[in-house]
Write a structure and sequence with these properties.
The chain is mainly beta. About 10% of the residues lie in helices and about 35% in strands. The longest helix has 12 residues. About 10% of the residues have low confidence.
Length: about 160
């Protein structure tokens, strides 16, 4: 888990920075039993269960964090590329509290993690016979209509 790396903060448009010791403390606390409980739940899982890049502008995602699963409809941007490839990008957010987590806070609130978590995913889909190619990011984040998608509890 990479926490608040300067390049990530810059890309997200966040001001300020944490020093390395603060970053390490935040990371340690996020992985602790009271937060993500990484020793019992070593992975966050996102599974797209309904999406067709030829027609869909929204993907259905099943997100599992700390044993809690929610279904999300997330906006996607799709670009058809040569040789049957597709570039798919999505940007969405969710609330930690939707998964039963209390956002981390320390130093009387001087260091805290927001309830809202922003997620950006960039994929390059290609037929198996084609060699993998490093995707180039689509830089126009304004194309996303996203924000926080509707969340439903997994039954």
């Amino acid at each position: 888990l990479r926490v608040d790396a300067p390049e990530d903060r810059e890309r997200a448009g966040l001001a300020g920075d944490l020093d390395p010791q603060q970053r390490a403390e935040v990371r340690e606390n996020l992985l602790a039993p009271a937060q993500l409980n990484a020793s019992a739940y070593p992975a966050l899982r996102g599974e797209v269960y309904a999406f067709d890049p030829r027609t869909d502008q929204e993907a259905r995602l099943r997100l599992t964090i700390r044993g809690e699963t929610r279904n999300l409809n997330v906006p996607v941007m799709v670009e058809a590329l040569p040789e049957g490839r597709w570039r798919v990008e999505c940007r969405f957010s969710f609330l930690q509290s939707d998964f039963g987590l209390q956002p981390y806070s320390a130093a009387l609130g001087m260091i805290s993690v927001a309830d809202e978590v922003m997620v950006t995913v960039s994929l390059l889909l290609a037929p198996e016979a084609l060699p993998a190619v490093e995707p180039t990011p689509i830089t126009q984040a304004a194309r996303f209509t996203g924000g926080r998608p509707a969340v439903s509890k997994q039954e």
